[in-house]
Amino acid sequence: MSEHKCFDEMLGKVTENLRGQLPASEQESLKAQWENCAFVIEGNAMTTKIGLPISYEYQKRKKSGEPHKNATKGDVKMMMNYCPFCGERLKKAEAA
Question: Quick one: which of 29, 35, 40, 92 could link to 59 by a disulfide (CB 3.0–4.6 Å)?
Answer without folding.
Answer: 29
